[in-house]
Amino acid sequence: MKWVPQFWFLQSCIIVLFLLRSTLGELLEDPYKILGIHKKASTQEIRRAYLQLVKSWHPDKSDDPSASDKFVQIKQSYELLSDPERRKRYDLKGITEDDFYNRPEKTSFYKDPFEELFTHHNHFNFQENDITFFHKLSITSRQYDKQVVPKSATTPFLIFFYTDWCFPCLRAAPHCRKLVEHLEPLGINFMTVHSGHEPSLAKRLSINGLPCIVLVLDGNAYVYKDTITSLSKLVEFIRQKMPYKLVPKINGKNLEDFLNGWEDNKVRGLIFEPRENMRLRYLVTAYHFRHRVTFGFIDSEVIRSKFQIPPDLDTVLLFNENTSRPMTSVSMKDIPTSTLHHIISSNQYLALPRLSSQDVLEALCPCEWHRPRKRLCVILVTEESKEHNPHREALRTFAQNSPYGLDKVRFAYIYHGKQMDFVNSLIPEGSLVEPMLRIVILWRRDVSHVKYEWLSEKWESRYDFNDSFQKLESSISRLLKANEALSYEGFIKALFDEHAKGIWGRILSKTLATLDSMYDGLGKEQILPAISIVATVIFIMLVGYLMAYLVRLEEEDIKKQKTNSGNNNNDFSNYQPELKLHELRAEKYNGLVRLLKPGCRTILLILDMQSRQQLIPPFHKAVWPYRKNKSLMFAYMYVERGLSWYKELLQLALPDEPDLNINPRNCVGTILALNGHRKYFCMFHAKHAERKCRKANSNSVSKSSTDLESGAFIGFESSSESDEEVLLEENLLDGLSNWLDRLFEGTTRRYHFNYWPDFPNK
């Protein structure tokens, strides 16, 4: 057993040699050196250098024999350095290709040494063949974005996700081979992705477990959740994900409408099968040509007999503007996909198509910068109006009877209103050419560079008794000659895509595709959280709606109360303002005065039964701004009921005045601010001393005279019982608002005492 170390040493050497060969074989010349930039160049500098070199080394602009190879190197270097991931990989490891795991050298490394050493072990051979099968079809995330997504607009892709040590993936290998054998002839491409090498792509496509198959259609990925062993279920899955009503069923009622729908600039195709359901190969073909051909599946024996279709063969008919007979047909038991593509590609345009997008222009009038032979494009400028239908019909008749082949002359028309920029770019500077209903003949030399010529007269709509046909034919014959040049030369603008979806259509399509993709990507472990989130959102919305409804009801009730209170303003007994006024009585005396909390005060109005209606409204108006102050309460007191209490309160606060002769009528309109905790009050009255100025010398005032700072009222000490000195009741509270401001500022006089007198019970 001494040969074992030498054997493994030899095997290691072989592996190293294969690695070096596979690495060195793919090395490219230094891309920085090719572009002539330093290694810390920014993206803008790389692009600027690339554009300058392309202009110099383009094969059409350079006579250098090595221009083609140099141009390819410049392009490859730009692609490498413009991709941040590939540039980083090159800077760190010198790798110039991002498909290191997909190289033929890499495949041979996996296959040759071990296959030769273990050929007598069939089990190992079987596994290596499976790994090789997956690696041969493997793609990277960059290839997915650059190749698969753009091509998925016309070709469906099935992508199988796997890893090296995934035994279910190995068991699925035979079924994957069957998928390739069955689906690739139908036009469906099969690819694989190594999840370990491309974890970001697997995460982006919502791959939750391995093995997994993803269907890519028009840039949208759909995860197949069923088992890979069932080919019929996978085919049904592909059918369901195809665009909605891609191939509608046609019967005797809608046949004419379907064939006459070529106004959308698409050829019409009819598919006949001796089966009730259309096979996948025709559905995939309809998807591939859906931008140029609209297919319908025939479900009527009457239509079969009308077009004399064999009952046991598959048949495809293609129609242009002439709906009475097809322009081409094919009938076979199983029509190969390649045959279908060839026939449809050769007949995918109407006899007189409309230039509705840049793709149509490229297909009908391709650039011929490398060909000296002319290929003319005859274009009629019209408007989207039925009045111009005879003119288009006349040119269509001319095109159908034209002696020139499609490789020499193509006929088309254009809407001036939708492609105004394109048409106006063909009007020579300083020319008075009116393009409407005129024919222009183009010869495209480059993407935007054209040579063109306008017919001198407008295109007539009558076929007989006019020379428009002869003039057009003579112009085409003259311009097809190699030595004949077109009159004008200029640059055209790109055509507007008339079939493109609007902003809202794109948003709706993207939203539906995203929701569908999210639904397909949800596994069993994500369904319950997703349902709980949706239920939570719905519950929050319902609760919010209920709260808004209750708030609206409350607002309506408040409005009704305000309306009712406004209608009863004259009746004080029914007047219920938001600011509540309490009547000071014996049973409320403790709550309003004696037991007030620290910092709280009661604003008290003294009135009598006669002045009630006149004093309550102005008092309410004056204290209304303070209604939200929780430290204030508002009350009123009838002087007849609380006169003894009021007299005793004044005697306690004015000890220098033992005998006060109070006239009850003069007390009407007095405002007291009572502080129950500190045992003091502030006083307001129309003739209160604080509203008057002091006399110049207060010491000369005798005790018998009225002391303006003592708190006495004019008339309190008067022995007169007449009402002559009582102010008018409506003017008693004129200065109350100003006094309240001074009260809360703390500038009013405070009258202190030792205890609160009892309030009379009667």
UniProtKB/TrEMBL annotation:
Q: Pfam families from the xrefs?
A: DnaJ (PF00226), Thioredoxin (PF00085)
**Domain of life of the organism encoding this protein:** Eukaryota
Q: Which SUPFAM superfamilies match?
A: Chaperone J-domain, Thioredoxin-like
Q: Where in the cell is it found?
A: Endoplasmic reticulum membrane
Q: Which GO terms describe its cellular component?
A: endoplasmic reticulum membrane
This protein's major location comes to endoplasmic reticulum
Report keywords, A-Z.
Answer: Autophagy, Membrane, Signal, Transmembrane, Transmembrane helix
Membrane protein topology class: Single-pass type IV membrane protein
In the record, biological process GO terms are:
autophagy
- What residue range is the signal peptide? 1-25
Q: Where is the J domain?
A: 30-94
Question: Matching InterPro entries, A to Z?
Answer: DnaJ_C16_autophagy_reg, DnaJ_domain, DnaJ_domain_CS, J_dom_sf, Thioredoxin-like_sf, Thioredoxin_domain
Residues spanning the membrane: 527-551
- Looking at the record, the residues that make up the Thioredoxin domain are 117-243
Quote the SMART domains the UniProt record gives.
DnaJ
Q: Which residues form a coiled coil?
A: none
In UniProt terms, what function does this protein have? Plays an important role in regulating the size of autophagosomes during the formation process.
Matching PANTHER family: DNAJ HOMOLOG SUBFAMILY C MEMBER 16 (PTHR44303)
Protein's UniProt name: DnaJ homolog subfamily C member 16
Source organism of the structure: Henosepilachna vigintioctopunctata
